[in-house]
Design a protein that fits this description.
Layout lengths: L1 H5 L18 E4 L4 H10 L3 H8 L3 E5 L1 H6 L17 E3 L10 E7 L8 E6 L4 E3 L6 E6 L2 E6 L4 E3 L10 H9 L3
Parallel strand pairs: 1-2, 2-9
Antiparallel strand pairs: 3-6, 4-5, 4-7, 7-8, 8-9
Length: 175
């Protein structure tokens, strides 16, 4: 929300299915994917988000990307299957292995070629469908992926001062 506020984008916290009626898009944030999966069911949001995703764009950040994937190989996560890829949780290491480094942006989508990204227990994206576009790489691994209407990031673009990834997502809404 703070990143969106800095961009003067109106936003709200979605706590109920009814809140989605006031949204043009949805960001599933970072956090803990197993807990988030449980909370989606506890607050009856799972089906509402899946329905919402048919006509609206979603942006999954770290744990949000895990939820949006087809499969995370973790029975505690009930994936939403909103983007055709699988995830490997904590691929880049545990919490203590968190790091920041430059990722390579695909210059077909961005005016610059590097972005300083923060990885916190980040997922690996694998088994990507050819319908997806890879927007960024880290060590030859895709870390920012888009399908026709949804975006997923293995890193945390809300950390730091560069809001270009959020700007990209906002521009997606106008396509």
């Amino acid at each position: 929300k703070k990143a969106l506020d800095r961009l003067n984008v109106n936003s709200l916290f979605v706590r109920t299915s009814k809140d989605l009626l006031d949204c043009d898009s949805l960001i599933l944030p970072g956090g803990e994917s197993t807990t988030m999966s449980l909370l989606l069911d506890k607050f009856n949001l799972r089906d509402s988000i899946i329905d919402f995703s048919k006509d609206h764009s979603l942006f999954g950040i770290c744990a949000g990307s895990i939820l949006m994937s087809n499969n995370s190989s973790d029975k505690r996560v009930d994936n939403l299957s909103l983007i055709s890829l699988d995830t490997v949780r904590n691929f880049w290491g545990s919490q203590i292995n968190s790091f920041c480094d430059n990722i390579l942006l695909n210059d077909n989508y961005f005016t610059k070629t590097e972005y300083f990204a923060t990885f916190i227990r980040a997922a690996k994206f694998k088994n990507l469908s050819t319908s997806n576009s890879i927007l960024a790489f880290y060590n030859n691994e895709p870390v920012l992926v888009r399908n026709n209407k949804h975006l997923v990031a293995a890193f945390h673009p809300e950390i730091g001062n560069d809001l270009s990834i959020f700007k990209y997502f906002i521009n997606m809404l106008n396509e």
